[in-house]
Amino acid sequence: MPKGFPMSQAAPLPGPTMPHHEIPLSRPDISEVEIDMVVETMRSGRLALGPMAERFEKLVAARAGCRFGVSVSSGTSGLHLVMRALGIGPGDEVITTPFSFIASSNCILYVGAKPVFVDICPKTLNMDPGLLEKAITRRTKAILAVETFGNPAHMDAYASIAARHEIPLIEDSCEALATSLGGRPCGSFGRVGVFGFYPNKQITTGEGGMIVTDDERLADLCRSMRNQGRAIGPDQAVIDGRHNPRNVGAWLRHERLGYNYRMPEINAALGVAQMRRLDEIVLKRQQVADAYMKRLMANPNLVLPTICPDTLMSWFVFVVRLATGYTAAERDSIIAGMRNHDVGAADYFPCIHLQPFYREEFGYEPGMFPIAESVSQRTIALPFYNSLSQREVDIVCATLEVMIGRENLRRG
Predict the structure, then answer these.
(1) Tens digit of pLDDT at every position of the chain (412 positions)
(2) Comma-separated ranges of CATH 3.40.640.10 domains in the chain
(3) 8 A C-beta contact, residue 74 and residue 209
(4) Could you name the CATH architecture of 278-411?
(5) Model-level pTM?
(6) Helix/strand/coil percent split, the chain, to 5
(7) What are the backbone dihedrals phi and psi of residue 333, each rounded to the nearest 5 degrees, phi first?
(8) Alpha carbons 215 and 205: distance in angstroms, whole number
(9) How far apart are the C-alpha atoms of 316 and 295, rounded to whole Å?
(10) Where are the beta strands (DSSP E) in 74-220?
(11) What's the CA gap between 317 and 381, in Å, rounded?
(12) Partner of 284 at 20 to 30 A CA spacing, among 38, 203, 259, 357?
């Protein structure tokens, strides 16, 4: 057992004889390294358009095996810029998954295009490659593939399909930093990839994201659009945080429609420090995942994450699902029971096509993507973060098992 995870028996549920101890769903890992880097940046007086964002870009791009990185204000804004940089717009279709956080689909709507959903593989929870290829039409302008819960399964297949049909693969790697498939890092399978750095991710910048690509023109377009459409290259208004003396009026010259999607220097400083600790962070997350696997693997009521042998996971979350036959109401009751005992849990993810806006806008109905819907109604995200101890894992698992047992008794 890895250091920090001593062998122990399952702990009893928290009760009157135990001190109050909340186990949240997630918690960022912030050390003195991050604090010192942020303080150093604050003291520098350069809080925007400075060198820290560039350092962060290089670190993330290198880890993803890509030439260029473009830091942005969030993973969602990164996906939006990619859609625009690829020229996707009204009348176009983008194939994607209905089983994801809603931002992966919303970014398609931002540019006036239509998301075309395909059902998922019940084992990997990513899009079924066979169904994906059948969904391609003359209107398909891109494939937006999500590494659901950080699992890169089928990314190589998606890349082959995209190449065969000569359409770009956009890799939503917001949950997969430092994960690889067959030795190839996530972010490098598509023409472009996007990472997210919300506080529940492997590393965090508070809020922030990163576009990675080998396509210099695409990277430059995204840099311009994130900065209100200002020029890039030698005509840019600001170089390394300082105004470019060669272009006095460039700051107020806008060459294309743009946005304020820049990453502030303080956020980038946090990211640089987190990247320095990335291998340590990945190891800690693997230890927590291993502890959960060992503790729950014999439970017949649960389906644990399935990871292919050629995958190196960095583990974004740890999501189990109830066995076939449990209802969404029973799952929700189990989650509510866990929360009532101060153990974080959540229903990752509700299907996008059944969200109220999507049903109203596109007429989606239950039953259209049966595998995604079946999986979605039975998922339970368990507390998952770097400092989770073996004792806390035992408490989480014991609480989960008691709540499942309660539902089984109610069934009769």
Answers:
(1) 334 443 333 333 333 333 446 999 999 999 999 999 999 999 999 999 999 999 999 999 999 999 999 999 999 999 999 999 999 999 999 999 999 999 999 999 999 999 999 999 999 999 999 999 999 999 999 999 999 999 999 999 999 999 999 999 999 999 999 999 999 999 999 999 999 999 999 999 999 999 999 999 999 999 999 999 999 866 565 655 565 556 656 778 899 999 999 999 999 999 999 999 999 999 999 999 999 999 999 999 999 999 999 999 999 999 999 999 999 999 999 999 999 999 999 999 999 999 999 999 999 999 999 999 999 999 999 999 999 999 999 999 999 999 999 999 998 7
(2) 32-276
(3) yes
(4) Alpha-Beta Complex (3.90)
(5) 0.92
(6) 40, 15, 45
(7) -65, -40
(8) 25
(9) 19
(10) 93-96, 114-117, 140-146, 169-172, 180-181, 184-185, 192-196, 209-213
(11) 7
(12) 38
Q: Are strands 192-196 and 169-172 parallel, antiparallel or unpaired?
A: parallel
Structure tokens at 66: 């890509």
32-276 architecture in CATH?
3-Layer(aba) Sandwich (3.40)
> What's phi and psi for 33, nearest 5 deg?
-60, -45
Q: What is the DSSP letter of 330?
A: H
For β-strands 242-243 and 238-239, DSSP reports them as antiparallel
> Which residues, other chains included, contact 90 with Cβ-Cβ below 8 Å and sequence gap of 6+?
111, 112, 113
- The H or E element that residue 133 is part of is helix 129-134
Q: What are phi and psi for residue 293, nearest 5 degrees? A: -55, -45
Alpha-carbon gap, residue 256 to 342, rounded angstroms = 50
365: its two tokens:
């109905």
Cα torsion at 359, 363, 364, 366 (round to 10°)? 90
Write out the two tokens for 74.
């969030």
Strand order across the 184-185 sheet: 184-185, 180-181, 311-312
Map 181-244 to HEC letters: ECCEECCCCCCEEEEECCCCCCCCCCCCEEEEECCHHHHHHHHHHHECCCCCHHHCCEECCEEC
Going by the DSSP 8-state scheme, the letter that residue 326 receives in this structure is B
340 phi/psi in degrees, rounded to 5: -65, -20
Mention every residue, 6+ apart, whose C-beta is less than 8 A from residue 213: 66, 67, 68, 70, 191, 192, 193, 219
Q: Give start-end residues of each CATH 3.90.1150.10 domain in the chain.
A: 278-411
